[in-house]
TrEMBL record:
GO terms for molecular function: beta-glucuronidase activity; carbohydrate binding; signaling receptor binding. The gene is GUSB. Plays an important role in the degradation of dermatan and keratan sulfates. The chain crosses the membrane at residues 6-30. Its EC number is 3.2.1.31. It catalyses: a beta-D-glucuronoside + H2O = D-glucuronate + an alcohol. It is found in: Lysosome. The lineage of its organism: Eukaryota, Metazoa, Chordata, Craniata, Vertebrata. This is Beta-glucuronidase. It comes from the Eukaryota. SUPFAM superfamilies: (Trans)glycosidases, beta-Galactosidase/glucuronidase domain, Galactose-binding domain-like. Residues 40-224 form the Glycosyl hydrolases family 2 sugar binding domain. Keywords: Glycoprotein, Glycosidase, Hydrolase, Lysosome, Membrane, Signal, Transmembrane, Transmembrane helix. It comes from Neophocaena asiaeorientalis asiaeorientalis.
Length: 652
């Protein structure tokens, strides 16, 4: 696929969106304040109770949502956002499987409860895994899947009487089944000589702790009753003119007008349009470039949308501003192109993971991580192994960090997880994910899964369908999944645009023998490339390392071994990146929590930073490498040579 195709994708994309290919009802715009919209975060302390009853259903049997939680039994204070697992002193809560109950009162501004022209929406950023929501005891929403937002319009409930507050109850179940994403299984241990009656454990086939709870912000926001429900933007470039295709969905009125206005970073209007769809042309456009690829990376325009609509109560206006980066993405037989120039991913895989809060969103941690990424000279990461918080994606847009956006399709290894039920759910998850993240310029590729058993017979149909669906939802971006299967046996890779391969030479195989890495890695790359002639990303490689362990000559688990292993990989990557390898992502950015196992000394230690974000020796090695790669990109593949200034600011 050549550069021109990026344009084609963009055009077809706009058409398909126009046909309503996405099956989901409604948009999922990030709740931003504007002249017509307010937001009220409900973060802080919630009341909490885990249902320890034998069948875990006591909460439903006793209808805990009907009255304040304190009336149906004892409750704990629980911070939101946070996983519930690591904040307490009760070991049973850490490994709890089943329903937990959250509750809090929200004080409502008078206008919200009295002005019938105001729409009040409850939005839950992430509730892992299955959630049921009640407001004042009335069921308002249910959602499956722990990494994507969902909403409920609660206007009628809060406007039905003289209310100054409302009680929000959320029941969350972290049980995973072969049909959930990620999948899991519950294993009942029935040997009563070894286990008490009813004893069960949850097993998973992924390597991170199944943290649960309200992981992201819960908030209320308002819109007018006629409102901008969704915006879809795709961009293209013609000579030096930026093309911004937009499509806007309005709800709540049939009679409306839309005005759109594109502003540059100085606030100057550079293009204007009207109507629900159209194309804005930006002469001499500033393109959105990745970090370290241009002296002014991550240029963001603002698309201001104004809706004027007729409603029963008269005319109302709604305003929404969307950041827009103008850029193209395309894939050839051996290259990944951003704005028509070869892009080499040098970055990391991450996790949403930290001490105490688990997977709970945390601004200081996030800003620290982005500071570390930029210190490292990383220009990309993969959201292994689930979609991250929207604020993460916004910072990627802002800093020019390129993202491979991955679904929670991790651990698909059982035959049952290839059933139609699983596939249907996976298709829906891709719809939710594309709906949420489609407008981020930083997102350049979708990854539908990580390390599935893609050699199993049903994998061919499964991935063909899943990838085709994702491309139909968003024809403007390439699609992949991450494989660790044998190149001859993999039934899903024929459908991907870029091959993403994980390998752990001299770690899980031939451990201790770094001397075999170069041969094995070269064989890996050549086998895949000869078979498919598609660009390849080394999407994981790494070694477990306990910070402070030193052994010379290097032994496994020491900082020297991690460095040595990486260096062996780099020799081959340096050869192959001149041919068809388009990226390398270290496993992992930081140490992270996993299930307990004899192989995991309080979590996975393959981070180049500790869980507390302190560098191991390998971080300095990678830093040197990434800045060198960035300088090469700048010199040899200079996106806009004339616009690059000397060696500054890229020189290491
Ligand atoms: C992998 C997985 C990742 C694991 C990693 C490891 O291949 O994709 O989730 O954590 O290996 O450290 O074993």
């Amino acid at each position: 696929m050549l550069r021109g195709l990026a344009g084609t994708w963009a055009v077809v994309g706009a058409l398909l969106w126009g046909c309503g290919l996405a099956l989901l009802q409604g948009g999922m715009l990030y709740p931003r304040e504007s002249r017509s919209r307010e937001r009220k975060e409900l973060d802080g302390l919630w009341r909490f109770r885990a249902d320890f009853s034998q069948n875990r259903r006591q909460g439903f049997e006793q209808q805990w949502y009907r009255t304040p939680l304190r009336e149906s039994g004892p409750s704990l204070d629980m911070p939101v956002p946070s996983s519930f697992n690591d904040v307490g002193q009760d070991g049973r809560l850490r490994s709890f499987v089943g329903w937990v109950w959250y509750e809090r009162e929200a004080t409502l501004p008078q206008r919200w409860t009295e002005d019938l022209g105001t729409r009040v929406v409850l939005r839950i950023g992430s509730a892992h895994y299955y959630a049921i929501v009640w407001v004042n005891g009335v069921h308002v929403a249910e959602h499956e899947g722990g990494h994507l937002p969902f909403e409920a319009d609660i206007s009628r409930l809060v406007q039905s009487g003289p209310l100054s507050s409302c009680r929000i109850t959320i029941a969350i179940n972290n049980t995973l089944s072969p049909n959930t994403l990620p999948p899991g299984t519950i294993l009942y241990k029935t040997d009563t000589s070894k286990y008490p009656k009813g004893y069960f454990v949850q097993n998973t086939n992924f390597d991170f702790f199944n943290y649960a709870g309200l992981h992201r912000t819960v908030l209320l926001y308002t819109t007018p009753t006629a409102y901008i429900d969704d915006i879809t933007v795709t961009t293209d470039v013609d000579q030096d003119t930026g093309l911004v295709n937009y499509q806007i969905v309005v709800q709540g009125s049939e009679h409306f007008q839309l005005e759109v206005c594109l502003l540059d970073e100085e606030g100057t209007v550079v293009a204007k349009g009207t109507g629900g769809r159209g194309q804005l042309q930006v002469p001499s456009a500033h393109l959105w470039w990745p970090y370290l690829m241009h002296e002014h990376p991550a240029y963001l325009y603002s698309l201001e949308v104004k809706l004027t609509a007729q409603t029963a109560a008269g005319f109302v206006s709604d305003f929404y501003t969307l950041p827009v980066g103008i850029r193209t993405v395309a894939v050839t037989q051996s290259q990944f192109l951003i704005n028509g120039k070869p892009f080499y991913f040098h970055g990391v895989n991450k996790h949403e993971d930290a001490d105490i809060r688990g997977k709970g969103f945390d601004w200081p941690l996030l800003v620290k991580d982005f500071n570390l990424l930029r210190w490292l000279g990383a220009n990309a990461f993969r959201t292994s192994h689930y979609p991250y918080a929207e604020e993460v994606m916004q910072l990627c847009d802002r800093y020019g960090i390129v993202v491979i956006d991955e679904s929670p399709g991790v651990g698909i290894v059982l035959a049952q997880s290839y059933s139609n039920v699983s596939l249907q759910h996976h298709l829906e998850v891709m719809e939710e994910m594309v709906r949420r993240d489609k407008n981020h310029p930083s997102v350049v590729m979708w990854s539908v899964a990580n390390e599935p058993a893609s050699f199993l017979k049903p994998a061919g149909y499964y991935f063909k369908t899943l990838i085709a669906h994702t491309k139909a939802l968003d024809p403007s971006r390439p699609v992949t999944f991450v494989t660790n299967s044998n190149y001859e046996a993999d039934l899903g890779v024929p459908y991907v645009d870029v091959i993403c391969v994980n390998s752990y030479y001299s770690w899980y195989h031939d451990y201790g023998h770094m001397e075999v890495i170069q041969l094995q890695l070269a064989t890996q790359f050549e086998s895949w490339y000869k078979t498919y002639q598609k660009p390849i990303i080394q999407s994981e490689y790494g070694a477990e390392t306990i910070t402070g362990f030193h052994e010379d000559p290097p032994l496994m688990f020491s900082e020297e071994y991690q460095k040595g292993l990486l260096e062996q990989y780099h020799v081959v990557l340096d050869q192959k990146r001149r041919e068809y390898v388009v990226g390398e992502l270290i496993w992992n950015f930081a140490d992270f929590m996993t299930d307990q196992s004899p192989q995991r000394p309080i979590g996975n230690r393959k981070g180049i930073f500790t869980r507390q974000r302190q560098p191991k020796s390998a971080a300095f090695l990678l830093r040197e490498r990434y800045w060198k790669l960035a300088n090469e990109t700048k010199c040899h593949r200079s996106a806009v040579k004339s616009q690059c200034v000397g060696n500054s600011p890229f020189t290491f």
